[in-house]
Write a structure and sequence with these properties.
CATH architecture of the largest domain in chain A: Up-down Bundle
Shape of chain A: elongated
Order of helices and strands of chain A: HHHHHHEEHEHEHHEHHEHHHHHHH
Number of helices of chain A: 19
Number of domains of chain A: 3
Oligomer: homotetramer
Distance between the termini of chain A: 41 Å
Strand content of chain A: under 5%
Structural class of chain A: mainly alpha
Largest sheet of chain A: 2 strands, antiparallel
Strand order of the largest sheet of chain A: 1-2
Largest interface: A-C, 126 and 126 residues
């Protein structure tokens, strides 16, 4: 079934009909389509395109349809309608008769799909933000429960300096907090009513768009009808923000794959998020993390696809845009899944302090502290750096650690060394030395943790008031 | 159901179980999985891991399963097995009992999925090549049926020189012929048996891989087990070749959207591949072409996704690779759809010679012929070009065409002009002048058309002998 | 020259040294690097790592270097230093001697490059926003100068309904206004001081980061040192926003390539932004628009590249991130060029009202108005749509336009038709009918134009106060 | 300077002139452009467009130019010509005078740039294949020099089974061998002469394209002029093949970053391909590997960009295509650099057998061997797998290894266990058990190594004969 046909003589090719149909995909927007139609019917009544009884009929019909969809959606599968708009109109006419044929007055599928998508995305964004926040809570919980654990910090996947595990987790808190805000920006931009734009030139009937806006809960209305029907920026914003969130998730996944490998081993994944091998009985594989890493590629692929579709597309609506729905749905589902699974991973994670402890002993993580010591004794940093580099090389050749080198040997390198160097070589001394704002010292991290909790409290009350 | 579990104490998280399950996707490989298992059972029997009666039992069981899948595949939906391999093993055990538990000896899902995918892709490629060839046939048919139609040739979407419509169509013949060959290369690379690689180190049992190769119809066997289970190059080859084919289809789509616009108008799309507007009664929109153009983005997105998954992935198998199946299936389906719809479009296309004729009159398409005339009279080309540029500007200002300019005026520009110039300014003269190999002169195009037909004949007999 | 080496015995491979060197690229950040170093020297003095005389020396040295860079930057080419940070330190030591070796105390190239990039990007964003605003001004100017021109509005590259050219231009105003705001969001996120994060764990010296923030003009400081050195979200935000801006530019380019083609022809590009052919003397090609369209691909490619680099990257800094600079610079340069050239195109564009006029006569752009007429007479829209579709088909077969069909014939289709239909079939009547907010009616567009001018006034005063 | 202008009255906008100029990029094709022009001049002479003396003049002029370019290319920087074709023509006229103005007869920059690019790419491909082969040689050398070293093989970055290091290296040999062949396919497709296609319709002069083909060393000529000037498939082939090669390099890089981390540690990178930290004196970072991994993103970004440019581009030449040159050059340079640096890394790599030895002791890598043992005793594999899983769990809880579990305990799990199990639990026994073709057993790997050497010998003689 289609909503057009008067000017056509030939019949649609069957293969093309299947190719062209979007109902298998866009039926996911059916509640939004009905909601928009309910509001639109009122708007038509208020300009006398519909009589009050006609409005009542249409409202009843749409509500019946909505109920049926909610209760037993399987009947959607039986339809061969072209798209969700056609389906709703067809069903309405079936329920209430010819009055239903008046509903599309002054409206086009072009402004209708823009409305449906924005309504859907607004709800999706609230769900996404909720999940991002939940993930932030899990990070804070894990950090709070392991607030004293020190692990090696890495650059270039080589041990660099000791850091608090809580400090490490709060780095991801920062990323996801930015993501939360980015989704908020995205919500703000989506929160704009396109209905009334008609096919492209504005509705041919003097619809009260401001009343529609209030009814449908938008903050603003679009200001240009051509833009309103061809704009998909809000989708780009969403898929782009989702890509970045998945990049963050993929980095956490990569870290955790590595840190939970027995060679590192200061975290262990729960059995509940790992799988085995069909062949090798001993395997316990971090599939959950690998899938999250892999799925980040999926959303980046979606972003690429969306930008390619839009690039060079002439104004206004073109059918290429039909592909946007699968991108939206697939991105949303993937994102929610990955956010959720990461929460489960964090919630069930075990830490292994003794592995962390062992890891901090090897690798000269205190070399910078030694150089800083020399700076405090007056040596220019660049010279201190060079000198400590040579001490490290010396120790490495002897296969000893910095605390194992006798004071005499130190003094052989520089007369600035005194008995007090051995104090600054401890892990505890090292992390306490990094006490700037944002640093890993215990007091800073404790404060950062309490700041994070405060942010979470505010997020609860402030977003989407 | 999973094929592992002995070393696990905790239960899988439910959300993770859904996230991890690939059966909803990879069940599409079930016939390939059974085929591989049938061959593998024979291989196990030939090294006495299975007794002849056990082999018979397994073969019977697998054949029963195959029949059931072919007849009533809906029972696959009821399973909650982890993946297609688990499903086949579980079903087999259900049908024949404990003997089924022997089938996975010396085999891993890692080499099994590589086998299934290669078997599937080989078949898919034959179908794709068939569709590409069919498209080439439609191009040749359309060219043959309109062998004398001259249209404007474009560069920069500005009229350049007259060309035969058949010559234009044969340009796409060349592209799709290259695509056909590229899929052939892809077939050659896919045609390599990975089974026997085990999880990564090679099977722990002395499987006769050469016998397996013959049985399963591969041209070669893989030479390194680590590579065999982590290699997805054949998928990259396929998605990459598909991207290029879709780029070609998108260029044809773009051309046809433009050429069938009433402003150009020398082709008209059949009603059967166009759609109307829900609001604007007069519209006849080239949705088929727009969708093809849009879907090219989808396959490029898939390629991007696949390369991102593979980039930086450590050896050997990692779960990220599970995402490859959706990429393969979606690319294949999209490609086949677009190849098919383009055939319908070509088959039902109408040409409009009078629109083409009118289009050739405006736009100075013969300006180069005029410059070439001067060259033949001895003027260096660069000067001829400059001079004709000025003549064109002069005509444009007078709003006349080149044949309308009096000889006197021509001679005012250059004494080289003589009465014979008016002959070379005709469309026919122009196309005949381009008689180099590959050029648009009628005789060259006739020859090219007959060469194309010969290629098509050879394609029938030579590929996949 | 490098800033490390004490623990190394082997020499760097020459090919690797070239491969590893970033100075040819990151030297573009030299002024930011010096600015950051000046502020950092003060910070070191305030915690007594430097004495006041040492600070003075360093400040003098850095200022000398800055002057030299500004006056004769060619000496940068002679250096073989590893990167811009090494270059500045080396030069400083050359100018002021050993005191320069103290500057890197408690600082790492990891927080330093984050600082330099953020300083650079903040300035770049102000320039970008200025150019976007300038482009918005050109759109408004062109719209104001052609406020009464009516052109065909398109969907699916098929004529849909008449629209004001000014309305069309304001659709792009909306897009670029959103872009301007998106760059503002990007600025806000970039405006955060990372210096003090050290290599990853926070500086080992109690640097006053709040004082640094004020000195360097940032709105905030980063809260987590690990995040501070591995975060490139602000670059993703920038390249992502740039991609979308270029998508908008590419759509304008595509429209203009088509609208300025002689077949459409209601705009004409100035000679100053077109080029000719080396072979075909008549050609006047829209190269400027084609290049903009082509360059949008470049920035989308950059976005893809950046996301791929970040995906799955373990914390914290990894050398992969070095590639971010070329992405930033190339994106910025491409974006600024395309914004600038589009302004030139708009500024020098000619309109061709008679071509627009002719274009409006063909194509049944008033068919929807006819259907709306029937709705006002009481016919349900869907029936009116169907009926007008058949009238259009009838006219098309007769090769006449809607106003040419006699009233009798209209009444043959429906008795609702009366003499007044001929009034609603005019272009003027059609555009006036679309008088909703956002619609194309002259009064709405006049108001939209004045709103746009007001937005531009506010943009001048409000951004970056 | 441009090669057109007669029909233009306005001057080019200065900013647009810079934006439009490709000479800064395409000057890299100057030798190819001259080579093509030399051949083309002969072709013109053979159809009497040039006299023999004119030909001689032109040949002399072009050769002079070639010499100057080779000796002192810096004069190219001083030109403000539009592109390399214009530059060569301008210079030729400067050297030999007006005869130079005849060279462009019947030729367009459209077929000329296609020629130049194909000539360039053919040479580039030979260089690339040479580097790929060199890399294969390094892999074989490293494998030969460490033919007995056993390391853990990984799936999911978890220890799986013991493998020979040589077997591991030969997995990459397979990948790069496929790459070598893919570049060969690419060469074959590139090896096709486009010259004579003119602007789009074929040359207007009866150029002997077959003679040109021989002269310029192509295997074939293009068969359709429209395709010849708009086809960039050979570039897609090249960038696509390069992406895959870089994906392979990135996987090797990722493996080596991990394997050379002290936590794994069975390989160590030479000082000559690592760098230090400006702050942390102890650091030795694998920057070479990280850069290679990062640069793979660059080439994938290039591929995305190229496909986006081509997608939906109308026939034939459009200026968007100008962007293809930077993609080609950047991809080539990046690829060659990464191939070269990887060779250096392999050549200077140290292995650490004791670290490998330690790594093999932990992680139950022999669990599958134990299951296979039970299979040989008659237990169905799936049950053996389950049972060994439980044994592993038991050992893990006791913190012992499989060889440490007493026979009694084994027999407690299954009566099938006998004294001989302890033999199959050794590393040597495990690798020897994987003796299928492609497996990791020492004899198979020795054979694979000798096969690899033979392939290398053949590569020397067979490619590009």
């Amino acid at each position: 079934m289609t909503t057009w046909g008067g000017r056509f003589t030939g019949k649609m090719d069957e293969a093309f009909e299947r190719f062209n149909r979007s109902f298998p995909i866009d039926q996911r927007l059916i509640l939004e389509d009905i909601e928009g139609s309910l509001a639109y019917a009122e708007a038509l009544e208020s300009i006398a395109v519909l009589t009050p009884p006609e409005l009542k009929q249409i409202v009843n019909g749409l509500n019946q349809l909505k109920d049926r969809v909610k209760k037993a959606p399987s009947f959607l599968e039986e339809s061969n309608d072209e798209d969700v708009h056609t389906f709703v109109e067809t069903q309405l006419v079936e329920i209430i008769g010819k009055t239903g044929l008046k509903l599309h007055t002054g409206r086009s599928r072009n402004d209708q799909i823009a409305l449906d998508t924005r309504l859907f995305l607004k709800r999706a964004l609230i769900e996404v933000q909720g999940q991002v926040k939940q993930l932030m809570i899990e990070l804070v919980n894990l950090a709070s429960n392991n607030s004293e654990l020190v692990i090696p910090g890495f650059t270039h996947l080589r041990k660099a300096q000791p850091i608090l595990f809580a400090h490490y987790l709060l780095a991801y808190f920062e990323m996801f907090f930015r993501d939360h805000q980015r989704f908020q920006d995205c919500f703000r931009r989506t929160n704009c009513l396109p209905l009334g734009a008609g096919a492209l030139a504005g509705s041919g009937f003097p619809i009260n768009r401001e009343a529609l806006r209030k009814k449908l809960g938008f903050a603003q209305i679009t200001h240009n009808s051509l833009d309103a029907v061809s704009d998909r920026d809000y989708l780009v914003d969403f898929v782009s923000a989702s890509s970045l969130t998945l990049v963050h998730l993929s980095r956490l996944a990569e870290d955790f794959i590595i840190y939970s490998a027995p060679e590192f081993g200061w975290i262990e994944l729960s059995d509940c998020v790992t799988t085995g091998s069909s062949l090798m009985p001993q395997k316990k594989n971090p599939d959950s993390l690998e899938l999250i890493r892999g799925k980040s590629a999926r959303v980046i692929g979606n972003l690429t696809q969306l930008l390619i579709i839009l690039k060079g597309l002439p104004l206004t609506y073109n059918k290429d845009l039909q592909e946007d729905k699968e991108i939206l749905f697939d991105t949303l589902d993937t994102l929610l899944d990955c956010l959720n699974i990461t929460q489960v991973i964090l919630r069930t994670l075990q830490v292994n302090p003794s592995a962390a402890h062992r890891a901090l002993e090897e690798g000269f993580l205190n070399a910078t502290d030694l150089a800083d010591y020399l700076v405090r004794k007056g040596l220019p940093f660049r010279e201190a750096h060079e000198l400590v580099g040579r001490i490290v090389l010396n120790c490495e050749n002897q296969r000893i650690k910095l605390p194992d080198l006798p004071l005499d040997d130190y003094q052989h390198f520089s007369v600035l060394f005194e008995e007090d160097i051995f104090q600054i070589l401890s892990v505890q001394s090292s992390i306490e030395a990094h006490s700037v704002h944002g640093g890993t010292s215990p007091s800073r991290v404790a404060k950062a943790l309490s700041d994070a909790k405060e942010i979470l409290t505010k997020l609860s009350s402030s977003d989407h008031p």
